[in-house]
TrEMBL record:
Signal peptide: none annotated. The chain crosses the membrane at residues 21-42, 252-272, 279-297, 335-356, 377-399, 472-497, 518-538, 582-605, 617-641, 657-677. Keywords: Antiport, Cell membrane, Glycoprotein, Membrane, Mitochondrion, Mitochondrion outer membrane, Phosphoprotein, Transmembrane, Transmembrane helix, Transport. The keyword Transferase does not apply. It is a multi-pass membrane protein. This is Choline transporter-like protein.
Amino acid sequence: GSPNPRSPTFLVPAGRGCTDIVCCVLLVVAIVGYVVVGVVAWTHGDPRKVIHPTDSRGQFCGQQGTPNEYGPVPPASPASPTEPGPSPAAPRCPPPLQICVSKCPDRYLTYLSAYGNPSSLEYYRDFCTSEFKNSRKVGGLWGRRPPCPWGDSRPGALTSGSLSPTQAPLEVLKDRECPAMLIPSTPLARRCFPAIQAKKGVIMVGNETTYDDGRGHRRNVTELLEGAKKANVVLETRQLAMKIFEDYTVSWYWIIIGLVIAMVASLIFIVLLRFLAGIMVWVMIVMVILVLGYGIFHCYMEYAKLKGEAGSDVSLTDLGFQTDLRVYLHLRQTWLAFMIILCVLEVVIVLLLIFLRKRILIAIALIKEASRAIGHVMSSLLFPLCTFFLLCLCIAYWASTAVFLSTSNEAVYKVFNESACPFSGQTCRPETFNTSNVTKLCPDAQCLFAFYGGETAYHKYLIALQFFNVFMFFWLANFVIALGQVTLAGAFASYYWAFKKPDDMPAFPLFSAFGRALRYHTGSLAFGSLVLAIVQVIRVTLEYLDHRLKAAENKFAKFLLSCLKCCFWCLEKFIKFLNRNAYIMIAIYGTNFCTSARNAFFLLMRNIIRVAVLDKVTDFLFFLGKLLIVGSVGILAFFFFTQRIKLVQDTAPPLNYYWVPILTVIVGSYLIAHGFFSVYGMCVDTLFLCFLEDLERNDGSAEKPYFMSQDLRKLLKKTNKGQPEA
């Protein structure tokens, strides 16, 4: 593109109007729809399904106001409820049922051994069905459950029926009124799992290595290991979490002190960049040259030392490929190749310094100017907290809506039968089942809870609503980030385009920029964040497909999917770069998103060398700053919490794991440093675009004076006519 014209009427910021109104309206409509989806989800959803387990009748365990509020845990998990018989009209086995109990069993016990012992039977009844415990027959609502001819359920599955404890034990077990056996169990996530433990490498359950399966056979407890392996991992994780929580309770105030130190160090580093940016950059460049020079010297010394040694003159082509890479280090040709490569790099870097020295000086001057700008807009350092708060709101709304949507399913009941029945597998209602035609045509049929689902239009579109929820999360999150970027850009642009700095700046530049962004440019921010959200949703979809195709054997599909993931990753990075600079142009000129993106892109392409130099210089300084801050605070935390500082040795709290507060301080320090440097990076990018616009639009005359600082004018040998230079 051609440089911007030198217009005498050029004013920054110019008179503004609302931009991208269509996208603004679309965002408002989408937010209203998102709220409606949330209200509908909150109306139909029930998060108790995530927290509280249910029995096989779909009733919650341990929840007040329900029939099973006394029982906190079900002793078994249901099998697949949708497994059919040989044909739709054939018999269908009911799924193994769950029963809510007041506590988990703490001993090995079989029903056959408990039947002849009144005290054992009394204990055993706590883990049987409510009808069995009440010692009365029940025919009504739930009916009896006959044994399944083509599948035996787990011994711990408990069922309801119409048998009393006075019946023969085999009849009770046949109809699954009680489990065939009890196993010592541990409550976890409101469920009972075998209490597996390892003592000296021996797997035990309840201090036993074998158990009676209730059918006269002794089994090894390792058969229970696979079923409870993940549960025990969760149990160990919970114990670890409790210890970590204890460490936080005794060290939280020291962690806060460490984070405050990181915040102060970040602020001091940004202030010092005004004075030390040039020194740090040139020291870095000199160190790179010296390191390369030492590498050349070392390669030459190794090359000379191998002269005359046996086998050192073998060429690389004659040697061929060797798995032991140390063989190549005994060849003179290897060190000669290293020396040539390092010499080429040294020459290239020296030539770049010769030809790009002025651009490096400009980058250093802009970094120093950014430090001054932040000094005049100190509130900008706290603005990321506002962005963080809004992002937390987006995450909270998305997560809660997702939970309510996923728990919007209703209890679905199906017809199960022992003999052939035309209604087998059909949906039924327990309240009216006994009076329906099903019981007349199929006397042994039962209406039992099958699973949580739904057949209404709302339930059919739950997947679409979840997809909309994810899409809106990305859109709103990107909008919040865009709002933060355009606000900071507007504040720093008002600093640059103030002819007399800081006298010509508005009283509250950050709040003024925030108001302009919301009042005039909500549509443009919605446009840019919408484009980015679409790409991110496509990336999430590709990741989901990749996860589902991991077990596939189609190599072409995997290759195509990998290519698509790579392409959209690159596209997302490019759109983020383009959006960031487009928001800066929006803050400066008040133009719409497409115009701002085009102008920003062409402006950067006309100054691509300056862009590359500034980007690398700022990346180095930010890396150095984060490394210095996080490393210093992390080392200080390590010596403190490990009680290696004698002055405060008795002050450090006793900990289960000293790495818990240390890692917390390190991660927190990095986030704090990243927040400070993100503001600094936005300031540098904004001043850089303003600087390029200033050079193209102004010529230093009285009508079109330069707005850049005096240091930048001296560096570029530019002057404003009629104004003395200090």
